[in-house]
TrEMBL record, chain B:
It comes from Nocardioides panacihumi. Belongs to the binding-protein-dependent transport system permease family. This is Dipeptide/oligopeptide/nickel ABC transporter permease/ATP-binding protein. PROSITE patterns: ABC_TM1, ABC_TRANSPORTER_1, ABC_TRANSPORTER_2. The keyword Lipid metabolism does not apply.
Length: 299, 637
């Protein structure tokens, strides 16, 4: 269902543009016969339904058409640029998880039942502020401090491991803060559960109670929101890539929107959408694995 | 209503949020009027200059003052945000209320449609719509407005569906009130508050989206400028002049925070009521706990598994500490079964929890001593070892609700095996084998298979068996069972009690059975401790309980249990009045207000728990006096 909407939306997008998309792409000064030829090449003169069937057929063969501007096949552009974006998003996700879960658990354990009020307040205010700064602003701030002033990392581009540090941080900090807050709240409620009291009655080490008994129960509830965060992180790459001139899909989509290179826009939107759908599915599967009460069959 | 809105301004979050929001709105209104000229003025001598006295934030590539440009940009940024918010909210409301208004298949279609779009992140939708509506401010408003609509629609649907199910709405519909009228009069006013909160927070997100879109060059186009546009212009010169990119960014964050904090403050005021649980503590009679008489004359000191002296539990309250358990002393002999009865709030469960060392902060457990198997649990253990091993293997605890007392994400066998792994040095396999063996011992059928199942695959009675089996992983000297059968079916109750008895006999373990049910305790136990308002008021053997109890409260409890001779036509016997609130324990005997024997002395002096001639203990100035005599006197008087 979602997949169908995604494909149809990316198909219809080009037809919903007011006016003639080809005319818009080639500019007002382009000769009429060139526009006509292009229209024909893109198949825009056929009836809508024929175009749709054609589009779906090509999609099945992995053909996304070719760029109006560069004449290159869209799939080629995407396959060149996808690794940069995917690696960025994946690393950022790992960093966010690696920071948020231990932090959330640690703060929950340290501040539960009204202990260490000041730690709690510091955590709450820091995470609210960090969580509400959009990723591209974090990116700009990081560039100012670590690239321009300190010169530790490159300002832009994708060149070796050190160039990953700032973009990954820019993407990860906000979601990590939000996720840590959620983990903390979930942990706090789980730590009050009867089965945690049972575990304490068994006199298990605190580490085992917190990590083996409490954490899995907190994570099942956290995952749903974590998945949404990851999905928004995928979209967040668009902005962050533009801050760091990252040669990924995000720069591509913005450029092609500006140059009105519609086939490229269609293709990239499709890839982004697929990425999001994939994440949602993975989250559902992970939930099913972690929570023995639900099974994959119920999806 | 006004009262609640003003409460927002009394929370720190509310003050900061509303304060920032006011500031931003004032800037949006007045900044262009005051500084519009300065923001546009070109200073050719200072192109791309850094901060100076003349230009606080420096200048851009045309020599325009960035400080004023950032301030003036507030209006456009905020206007665009507002328009998009209104647009998104309207579409969201239409889509959100449509399922109820349209009903049937069409309504479900709208729901499905919204759900598909909610799955995609907002920014992606914004980009798609930006393609359709074209680059520029108008396109950006439409794109962002449409992109936030599905989220708000989903929220609206959920809220509306919740209210629409309520009885008064159903009643209005049955009464034939028009659907639109039901929506406008009955449904929307009731979902307004959460909607306001979410729209406020969404406005913050929209503000950030605009900044992002303009930053990408897809939003506001020159010569107009909003914060995002200024950031993009600043980014190219970030080496020379980082403040040009940072300053508008900071404004974006401030404005975004203003919306978020205001939203959260509103949510806080409307969502959570201000009353707190332990709020009404008045005063606690402090000082002299009546020195309890030497307990357990009937048991030789060396034979005690558990020896508790002057145990009290306190929690911090608004007006000083509240003490739900106030100086309890008793002992449990080897293999003895002792029951603890009392109404809820009498402190019986807390007594049990504090013996098992399960009272958590901010609760405090004090006692002259709390000896378990000869070790004082309140003293730091000798040799640096903790009491964990002793408690983990020699003390078994069975909790009230077997449905929630097992970890839902772990297999039953694993949960049992943990004890063996951590306290008995068993490896994984032998610990699991012992768990299977213990499940067999508590008569769980097919224990090998059952051990590999999760708690949700067990029935309540089965889980309680498994819980007892968990206690048998070690070799328990004492089993504390806190209302072990309360949550179970009557038929299963007796099976579990029987199992407890068998286990006790086989293991030679003592039992401390906490229950509000006098008849359960009388069936299972050798001796009963009756608790009232955090004190033991009587300690009596079960043989004497029915006929020779001396405290008027104990006698009232016994009388309240119907038996075969009870007249089934007569109303059930009850104890008049209410149990004492631990925060408001009166001076004198806590039971005096409900006691037919109460005299002035009872209301002045708290009676001490004293040993009687037949081995029991009782805390009452009128212990053993005839109640009938008094009630007759009252009747005649």
């Amino acid at each position: 269902m979602s997949l169908w909407v995604l494909v149809t939306a990316s198909f219809l997008m080009i037809h919903l543009v007011p006016g003639d998309p080809v005319r818009a792409a080639l500019g007002m000064t382009a000769p009429t016969d060139l526009v006509e030829a292009k229209r024909h090449a893109l198949g825009l003169d056929d009836p809508l339904l024929t175009q749709y069937v054609h589009y779906l057929g090509n999609l099945l063969h992995g053909d996304l058409g070719e760029s109006i501007v560069s004449q290159l096949p869209v799939t080629e552009t995407i396959s060149q640029r996808l690794p940069a974006t995917a690696s960025l998003a994946f690393l950022a996700f790992l960093v966010a998880i690696a920071v948020a879960i231990p932090l959330g658990v640690a703060v929950a354990v340290a501040t539960r039942r009204g202990r260490r009020r000041r730690t709690e307040l510091a955590f709450a205010s820091t995470s609210v502020v960090l969580g509400s700064i959009p990723d591209f602003l974090v990116g700009v701030a990081l560039v100012c401090v670590f690239a321009v002033n300190l010169g530790w990392f490159p300002v832009a581009g994708r060149d070796g491991a050190s160039s990953y540090v700032l973009p990954v941080l820019a993407l990860a900090i906000g979601p990590a803060a939000v996720l840590a807050r959620i983990v903390r709240v979930e942990m706090l409620s789980v730590l009050e559960a009867d089965y945690i009291r049972t575990a304490r009655a068994k006199r298990l080490p605190a580490l085992r109670i917190n990590l083996r008994h409490a954490l899995p129960n907190a994570v099942t509830a956290t995952l749903t929101i974590g998945g949404m965060l990851l999905a928004s992180m995928v979209a967040g790459t668009v902005l962050v890539e533009n801050v760091f001139a990252w040669p990924g899909l995000g720069s591509t989509i913005v450029q092609s929107i500006v140059t009105k290179d519609y086939p490229v826009v269609q293709g990239t939107v499709l890839v982004y959408g697929l990425g999001v759908l994939l994440i949602n599915t993975l989250v559902d599967v992970a939930l099913a694995v972690l929570d023995p009460r639900s099974t994959i069959g119920d999806l | 209503m006004t009262n609640r809105w003003s409460r927002i301004l009394r929370t720190p979050v509310g003050i900061v949020g509303v304060g920032l929001l006011t500031l931003v709105v004032l800037l949006a209104i007045f900044a262009p009027m005051l500084w519009g000229d300065k923001a546009g003025a070109v200073d050719t001598e200072n192109l791309l200059a850094g901060p100076s006295a003349k230009h606080w934030f420096g200048t851009d590539n045309l020599g325009r003052d960035l400080f004023f440009r950032v301030l003036v940009a507030t209006r456009l940024s905020l206007t665009l945000t507002l328009v998009a918010t209104v647009l998104g909210t309207l579409i969201g409301l239409v889509l959100g209320t449509a399922p109820l208004l349209l009903g049937g298949r069409l309504g479900r279609l709208v729901t499905a449609f919204v759900n598909v779009f909610v799955a995609f992140p907002g920014l992606l939708l914004v980009l798609v719509f930006a393609v359709i509506f074209g680059v520029g401010a108008r396109g950006a408003v439409l794109a962002i407005g449409l992109a936030v609509a599905p989220g708000l629609a989903r929220l609206c649907q959920t809220l509306v569906a919740g209210v629409a199910g309520l009885e008064y709405v159903a009643a209005a519909r049955v009464a034939g009130v028009n659907r639109f009228r039901v929506m406008a009069r009955h449904v929307l006013p009731n979902v307004a508050e959460p909607l306001v909160v979410n729209v406020t927070i969404t406005a913050g997100a929209i503000l950030l989206s605009f900044a992002g879109l303009s930053f990408l060059g897809l939003g506001v186009q020159a010569p107009d400028y909003d914060w995002g546009r200024l950031m993009q212009d600043g980014l190219s010169g970030i080496y020379v002049h980082p403040l040009a990119a940072l300053a508008p960014g900071i404004m974006v964050v401030i404005a975004g925070l203003a919306f978020n904090l205001t939203g959260e403050a509103i949510a806080g005021v409307f969502g959570i009521s201000a009353t707190t649980g332990l709020g009404k503590a008045l005063h606690v009679p402090t000082g002299e706990t009546p020195a309890a008489d030497l307990p357990h004359d009937h048991a030789v000191e060396g034979d005690l598994v558990l020896d508790v002296r002057d145990l009290s539990v306190s929690f911090p309250g608004v007006h000083g500490p509240v003490r739900p358990v106030r100086g309890v002393s008793f002992g449990v002999g080897v293999g003895e079964a002792v029951g603890v009865v009392g109404e809820s709030g009498s402190g019986k469960s807390l007594t049990a929890l504090s013996i098992a060392q399960l009272v958590e902060e901010p609760g405090r457990v004090d006692a002259r001593h709390l000896r378990f198997c000869g070790t004082d649990l309140l003293e730091a253990p000798t040799g640096g070892q903790s009491h964990d091993k002793l408690l983990g293997t020699s003390l078994a605890v069975v909790f009230q609700d077997p449905m929630t007392s097992f970890n839902p994400t772990m297999r039953i066998g694993t949960q049992l095996a943990e004890v063996g792994r951590h306290h008995q040095g068993l490896d994984r396999r032998s610990a699991f084998a012992r768990a299977v063996d213990r499940l067999r011992a508590v008569r769980v059928r097919d224990p090998e298979r059952r051990a590999r199942q999760y708690p949700f695959e067990f029935s309540g009675g089965m889980r309680q068996r498994a819980m007892i089996g968990m206690g048998l992983m070690g070799s328990p000297r004492l089993i504390i069972a806190d209302e072990p059968t309360t949550a179970l079916d009557v038929t299963v109750q007796s099976q579990v009690l029987e199992l407890l008895q068998d286990v006790r006999r086989e293991q030679g373990a003592a039992l401390l059975l906490i229950s509000h049910d006098v008849s359960v305790v009388a069936d299972v136990c050798d001796r009963v401790l009756v608790m009232y308002a955090g004190r033991i008021v009587e300690d009596v053997s079960t043989a004497d309980l029915r006929t020779r109890a001396r405290h008027p409260y104990t006698r009232a409890l016994v009388a309240a249990v119907p038996d075969m001779t009870t007249d089934i036509d007569a109303p059930l016997a009850t104890i008049p009045g209410h149990p004492v609130d631990p925060a408001e324990v009166p001076v004198g005997c806590a039971y005096a207000a409900r006691c037919p024997l109460a005299t002035d002395r009872c209301r002045r002096e708290d009676p001490v728990l004293l040993s009687g001639p037949d081995g029991g203990r009782v805390a009452c100035w009128h212990a053993g006096e005839s109640i009938e005599a008094v009630t007759c006197e009252e009747a005649t008087a």
